[in-house]
Amino acid sequence: MIRNLYAAAALALLSAQGAYALDIRIATEGAYPPFNLVDANGQLKGFDVDIANALCAEMQANCTIVAQAWDGIIPGLKAGKYDAIIASMSITDERKEAVDFTAPYYAAGAALVAPTQSDITFTLEGLSGKTIGVQRATTYAALLKDEFPGANVMTYDTVDNQNLDLKAGRLDGVVAQQVVMYDWLQQEGGDAFAFKGDPVIDPQYIGTGAGIAVNKGNTELLAAFDAALAAIKANGTYARINASYFPFSIAPQ
After folding, report:
1. Residue 28: its pLDDT value, please?
2. For residue 38, which phi and psi values (nearest 5 degrees)?
3. Which of 72, 121, 193, 237 could pair with 126 in a Cys bridge, judged by C-beta atoms 3.0 to 4.6 Å apart?
């Protein structure tokens, strides 16, 4: 009840002041399906984009969503190119030194995907000597570097490119976000690959979930996003978006 009252108060304050209501610029990556991608018409789509639009509607804000390469996404925020990041960014202690985060809007672990017939396992011994692809500058890359030193880690600019090398037989496996890889496995050719072992859920690397990032000290925008997030969960909008992408809930527990 207290949280709901806080959410209502934050949205009322936002509406009364008109803050951000005219224009919020939001960055996403555009290369992380099904969360964010660019479709055949050049339009940004995906779960992150749908959540962003739902939040903006709840806040009665006019939002512009732009694509930004992952390794420059936090620097772009700090440089003022946009006001927020909604791009499946895991909340970690390291990132919290650079930006402020809302409550998590979804949670998923790190998964290993490899050819179906492979006996590879997501363990220290199982990855030793194996060539594993991962997107650079991600929590998954840090996990592999620190916890799986025996793996030969190849880094890529996007998950799509690491998956292309997996399909081409240049990798023994890839590590990426569980739901992203679930979506990839449903696509043409995905039946030749499978999850290997349980996903790794380690808050030190994976964080507590994916959150919306804003610049340090931007408490008003942060509160508005948190309030809007609570509202779309309460009114069923979040559940409808979730169901349109996944046969399981990714809402944080």
Report:
1. 98
2. -105, 125
3. 121
